[in-house]
Design a protein that fits this description.
- 2 copies of one chain form a homodimer.
- Chain A folds into 2 domains: about 130 residues, Aspartate Aminotransferase, domain 1 (Alpha-Beta Complex), CATH 3.90.1150.10; about 210 residues, Type I PLP-dependent aspartate aminotransferase-like (Major domain) (Aspartate Aminotransferase, domain 2, 3-Layer(aba) Sandwich), CATH 3.40.640.
- Helix content of chain A is about 40%, strand content about 15%.
- In chain A, helix 7 links the parallel strand 7 and strand 8.
- The mean pLDDT of chain A is about 95.
- Chains A and B meet through helix 1, helix 3, helix 4, helix 8 and helix 9 of A and helix 1, helix 3, helix 4, helix 8 and helix 9 of B.
């Protein structure tokens, strides 16, 4: 019943996990086990550069690589920062999907890259636009979020995944695939990772922020051995050593079978929330096309030009609806291929931390603001 | 009895805490308390940019500043990296004591600074050399470790502390004081921090690596409000959010009174080790002058030119003695003020993770290698 929540503020601002789903008791049990277990002294001392070795082993088994191809860092943004710091040289260009994760765009820019946004269609990046941009200037890497993209909710199709690795091979650039939401699939089947199609051209970045807890800050990167070796050296030079107790707790979380049960809990909690937001968009904004995701954290919509979107953020706030500025997700909002108002008309709807009732009320409130 | 350990390898390579002193049981108790306490969900969610607020409050009380003047990061090197990333512009010069902490030198260089080493006397940096270097080119900051310096063990005298802040004020540069060892004083009285003499010119960096555990990676920075605000923004852009469970455990460690008892345990363990290494140097290398520290982790010696130091690292290794290359601590080994062999003749003796017997045997072994 939307009426129950209509007077309260609804936050569509951040892609955070539902607070009730954070497994504090399970983590407490794991922390106790590792801090009183046989390796307790080891996980409090300097060491394990590149990340706690048992965690790197666990990840390496999941990705069928050697543990030396895994670097564990303080969340995936930390690893993207290190990666950009290593790969980007002055004058380099980096491509991102447009829209894309705002913090990644900022990070690549701060590391000196010119960041070019390539339009994202409902089935993945627009290949014609990508080839045109490559012809103009080859990127050092293309950053993609192939599963349940942040912010658009788009999943790159199998055909486009193959096309991306083919292009990366032909034109000699890196693909950086960021897959933090991939495991949170509420329906359908997973498509291959880009690294499954070409492990030599692809760096895979992911984290446990959405699967266990954001504040443990455990993210990881998987890539070719020579690259990971260099990145590990750079990580050592910037943060010296990994945070080991949290990384050891993640290993224990798997050993005790908590990872699977927790993942199932998350899916049971989030799946109806996804359904609720999708249903609300279909009900209250029936003319708005959008990618209907099968997992992840985000549904996003681009409001038609005929809708009343001027000054939307401020009007929404007054109506008790907090939105993120859609323009933040656009690296390149004034490129010739992009309608300059597209960013303003882009609305991200993170659904995991809101109840179905809040989601319905929020979308209804949005519709009231934009439908003339 | 040195004979007990004479056949085993002795590691004088890294300034790490004694593994037996790592308080794993106490930390386990703290972790359990915070992960099952009233803020358990909060410390697993995104938030607390700049560091866990109760920890910033605790530190701010110790330093008599506002919590907004404290930034908590993943160890102090992480904060030095952020600080250098923010302050250093192309062409900038950074001064360090010579010798100084090798990783800090590397970090400042990687952030684009030209790093100049200013000779360190037994009572702190050589002021004449410092003024000459300032006249040549003013640094963006001078990095000093005023208490029980790494690697030299030197403590900057009260007079020189005052001179440093006077120079920083007169010539308009920052002082970055790194004080991770300050609390580990085994004798004598603490001198004022540089920030006690001029809080507007000084950035203080420290950590719990030597006081609780290195692998929790909790370091902090204290500085003027406007600067800390900018650094907090940069931290957020690179690591997004802090590791909260470890930071919350540090707060709990204080609340339960563990910090004081643990500190006393460390002092009781380390004080006889310092005595042992000092006594061994006086016994086996009686002609070698060195700064006799009243705390910290390091005693260091510069072997006279007449000693047999050629190929020392390899010969030491063969004799079961692992040493760090002294040249790594010299930012500027070929400056006109420095004898080019000084780095080669410089030997750091970290004493905390070795028993008094190992320390005596190690110094004796070293003496056998270098005394002709």
């Amino acid at each position: 019943m939307p009426s129950q929540v209509s007077s309260k503020q609804i936050l569509f601002t951040r892609g955070v996990p539902a607070v009730e789903a954070l497994p504090n008791k399970l983590l407490s049990e794991c922390m106790q086990a590792v801090l009183e277990g046989p390796d307790a002294k080891g996980i409090l001392q300097y060491g394990h550069n590149g990340g706690y070795l048992p965690l790197r082993q666990l990840i390496s088994e999941q990705y069928h690589v050697s543990p030396d191809q895994v670097l564990v860092g303080n969340g995936s943004l930390h690893l993207q920062d290190i990666l950009a710091g290593f790969l980007v040289k002055p004058g380099d260009v980096v491509f991102v999907e447009q829209p894309s994760y705002d913090r990644a765009i900022k990070t690549f820019r701060r590391r000196g890259a010119k960041v070019i946004g390539i339009p994202l269609d409902l089935d993945g990046i627009n290949l014609t636009a990508l080839e045109e941009s490559i012809a103009e200037k080859k990127p050092v890497f293309l950053y993609v979020i192939p599963d349940f993209q942040n912010p658009a909710g788009v999943t790159t199709s199998a055909k486009k995944r193959q096309a991306l690795v083919d292009l990366a091979e032909r034109y000699d650039f890196w693909l950086v695939e960021d897959v933090p939401y991939r495991t949170l699939r509420y329906a359908g089947e997973s498509l291959p990772l880009l690294r499954d199609l070409n492990s030599e051209r692809v760096v895979t970045v992911s984290s446990y922020s959405k699967l266990i807890s954001p504040a443990i800050r455990v993210g990881y990167l998987v890539g070719p051995l020579a690259l990971v070796k260099q990145l590990t050296k750079l990580a050592e030079e910037t943060i010296l050593a990994p945070v080991l107790p949290t990384q050891a707790a993640v290993v224990e979380f798997h050993r005790r079978g908590f990872f699977e049960t927790n993942l199932n809990n998350l899916k049971q909690l989030y799946a109806p929330r996804l359904q609720a937001v999708v249903q609300a968009v279909k009900t209250y904004l029936p003319e708005v096309p959008f990618a209907e995701p099968e997992g992840g954290f985000f549904v996003s919509i681009t409001l038609p030009q005929s809708y009343h979107t001027a000054d939307l953020l401020a009007r929404a706030k007054q109506a008790g609806l907090l939105l993120t500025d859609g323009r933040d997700f656009f690296a390149d909002p004034y490129a010739p291929t992009v309608d300059a108002t597209q960013g303003e008309r882009f609305v991200r709807l993170p659904f995991c931390a809101l109840t179905p009732e809040q989601l319905e009320a929020g979308v209804q409130r949005l519709a009231n603001l934009v439908c003339k």
